[in-house]
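Exercise: predict the fold of this chain.
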Amino acid sequence: MNNCPVCGENNFCGNLSPSNKDEACWCMDSAISFPDSLLNQVSDADKNKKCICKACALKHQLHSSSRN
């Protein structure tokens, strides 16, 4: 469950880590977005089961902003 469904690397999900109970996961940062164009890259089998990693989220954000 800790692997990113886009790239397969560790997603470092803070919500799954028992050591981070008092800290919010990196995905709660309002500067990071998860638009449909990114979420649509996740297979139906992995949707709502695996978290996209920060690297993929930021890469998608950068790629999307460079097209605008």
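Check your answer against the key: The mean pLDDT is 89.
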